[in-house]
Amino acid sequence: MNIEPILLLLIPIISNVGFFKLKLIKTLSVLSAVLTLIISIFLYFLAPIKNSFFFITKFTTFFLLVIASIYLLSTLYSMNYIKPSKIVSERLYYILLNSFASSMLFTVIMNNYGLMWVGVELTTVTSALLIIAEASETSLEATWRYIIIVSAGVTLALFSIIFIYYNYHTLTVTEILTKPENNIITKLAVALALIGFGTKAGVFPMYTWLPDAHSEAPSPISALFSGVLLPAATYVVYMVYQVNPLTNIFVIFTTLSIITASIILTYQWHIKRMFAYSTIENMNLALLGLTIGQPLGAIILLLAHAFGKAGAFYSSGIVLKVLGEKRIENIGGLHTKLKLTSVSLLLSSLAVTGTPPFATFIGEFFILQTLIQKGYIIEFILIVISLATAFISINYNVTKMIFTQRELTVSEEPKLITFISLVSSIIPLVLGILLLVILS
């Protein structure tokens, strides 16, 4: 039995023993995130690991690296961002943050569909209170919607798991994937998984919780939702998809999701809601890539999107913290006083909208190329139009916030969180340049 996966799950939980002292739990949380990232890197070289408990392939390790990386960045960001509220104290915040990270890691390494379902459910339990960490009235409503909609989706997903067990008399992933069966039971299981687990992945039509939760949660949690939680749910959807690939249905639903998100993006007024709808677009494009047989493009897109979107939410958090303003129309002149934040916001916006040479562009290119090769011409055209619409909508709003002339009364940028934001937004660019060098 390999001990590394066990440590991966236990370290974030063990770090919560410092709950009785704020400074101690902060220190242990950072240490936990660092160790989690180190173990994830080690597992990349150790994979594959296949036993009765864990199923970790090279494919899985990319999700582990994303989870661990954004967990570390968000933990560091939280140090200078999170303030106690009437509902969630700082100590409780870090307990929930560590538990949330552990639940996502649990979800993607289990060799059992039932335990994957448990992991997805645990992410709801551990993250719900994090949405209301800032204790506003709208955050309470967002949390309620999150719990109700996601619970309904997870219930549908449970029926998917029941159908899988009924057909195979086991829920072990490695056993089931070696003998896929094309019958009505497995088709029902996969279809229900698309809607059920797809609720957490932002798939149409069950995505409506997502913009509310993203916009009301503290920015480091928004980064975890967008860059980590949705990819973890996407991983589960894809693992169930392989039981009986219903490619055409998945293509239809992911295309509808991308189109819907791009249309809504044209009239967004809230800075964080804008990036939330962008997440729906990116996640569904990645899921589309996985289902049409382009895992490389999907992985590149997920990796670059995780850091780019984290940078976008970190930058947005600085704007909200310093200016106290969330309406895009009321934000302007950022380049005059928040120079590094402006750079981070611009770079992350270009990253998440697939601008070359960012790695997101390369991932999107591979996926769209495969879409044509598979004969989905109409879907290709609709998606390209949607991506162009999203690109224009997001970057128009961002450039307006940065370059519009407006007087700001800001003393200085918060150093640590600005640095984290900038680093996160640069990573997709560096990754894209490296990929272009490798592929040329």
UniProtKB/TrEMBL annotation:
GO MF assignments: NADH dehydrogenase (ubiquinone) activity; oxidoreductase activity
Protein localization: Cell membrane
Main location per the UniProt record: membrane
Residues of the NADH:quinone oxidoreductase/Mrp antiporter transmembrane domain: 112-384
GO terms, biological process: ATP synthesis coupled electron transport
Highest rank taxon of the organism: Archaea
InterPro entries xref list: ComplexI-like_HydComp, NADH_UbQ_OxRdtase, ND/Mrp_TM
Parts of the chain that traverse the membrane: 6-22, 29-47, 53-79, 91-109, 146-168, 188-209, 221-241, 247-265, 285-307, 345-368, 375-396, 416-439
EC number: 1.6.99.5
Enzyme's top EC category: oxidoreductase
GO cellular component: plasma membrane
Topology of the protein relative to the lipid bilayer: Multi-pass membrane protein
Alphabetic keyword roster: Cell membrane, Membrane, Oxidoreductase, Transmembrane, Transmembrane helix
Name of this protein: NADH dehydrogenase (Quinone)
Organism this protein belongs to: Saccharolobus islandicus (strain L.S.2.15 / Lassen #1) (Sulfolobus islandicus)
